[in-house]
Write a structure and sequence with these properties.
about 290 residues, globular, Rossmann fold, alpha/beta, 12 helices, eight-stranded mixed beta sheet, single chain
Length: about 290
């Protein structure tokens, strides 16, 4: 997140050091990235949000350098990921914050909303399912086939070897072919993500999100989370990993819900059509 307005702060949460990028003044917005990115995922959102009068807090989530990488899989349990968000809210000095999450950051955001409702102002989810619906649909739709990669990630060692082979060829190709818009990620963007993920233990840490939580009761935090705060879901319809049917019945879990579907975008909707996403974010968060 190389930008002149951005400052960096290190905080401790659950014994691990997290690096948080900060910019601007005003009501805090916490931006939670997904796999296999880091806080640089929000490079197109920081400046517009700051100009709109918000302060932005974008943590590199635990296990994603420059935040600390723990070698213990148990340290990536969802209950710790949720507490990390609470730790960032506390550091802002505000009693509550807006929380925006994409992919794994969205799953954490759903769980945070259910676990710490008193710390949440408004919630925004970008292409991340509510896990209650995800598990309902998994074997009754095409989602099981779409989620094959998550099952593959459960294997020991082999996923790391395959993903890291040939200078992380598969991950680099993923950034090129999965977005609806090929220009969503520049070579510089991809190089930065890969450079951080290639640091010792980082790829295994990123995969531990899948291994630890899909095998444990920790996912109950996300499966049962109910949100009373105003909630906006932004969904790129051309997402090959997550079906549109995951939006069905979402109002059961979010009582004040707005859904905005974007037909010409895929999984990385905030990188593919940042102008549209930023406008939706600012309009919703200003309320």
């Amino acid at each position: 997140m190389a930008h002149p307005r951005i400052r960096y702060k290190e905080i401790l949460s659950g014994g691990l050091r997290l690096t948080v990028g900060m910019a601007g003044e005003g009501p805090p917005i916490i931006l939670l990235h997904g796999f296999p990115e880091n806080a640089y995922s929000w490079r197109n959102q920081v400046e517009p949000l700051v100009q709109a009068g918000f302060s932005v807090w974008a943590p590199h989530m635990r296990g994603y350098p420059p935040s600390e990488v723990s070698p213990r899989q148990a340290d990536y349990n969802l209950r710790y990921l949720v507490r990390d968000v609470a730790a960032v809210v506390e550091v802002t000095g505000a009693p509550k914050a807006h929380v925006v999450g994409h992919d794994w950051g969205g799953i954490v955001a759903w769980a945070f909303a259910g676990r710490f409702p008193e710390m949440l102002d408004r919630l925004v989810i970008l292409n991340a399912p509510h896990m209650g619906i995800y598990y309902e649909k998994l074997w009754r739709s095409s989602q099981a086939a779409r989620s094959f990669y998550a099952a593959f990630f459960q294997l020991p060692l082999l996923p790391e070897k395959l993903l890291a082979a040939n200078d992380y060829y598969l991950l680099r190709r993923m950034f090129r072919i999965m977005p609806k818009h090929a220009e969503a990620f520049s070579r510089k963007d991809i190089d930065y993500f890969i450079t951080q993920l290639a640091k010792p233990g980082a790829l295994t840490a990123a995969l531990s999100y899948y291994r630890e939580n899909f095998r444990s009761s920790a996912m109950e935090l996300a499966r049962t989370a109910k949100v009373s705060a105003p909630t906006l879901v932004i969904w790129g319809e051309r997402d090959p990993a997550l079906g549109l049917f995951l939006l069905e019945g979402l109002e059961r879990f979010a009582e004040d819900l707005t859904i905005r579907r974007i037909p010409d975008a895929g999984h990385w909707v905030h990188s593919e059509v940042p102008g549209k996403v930023n406008a939706l974010l600012i309009d919703f968060l200003k309320g």
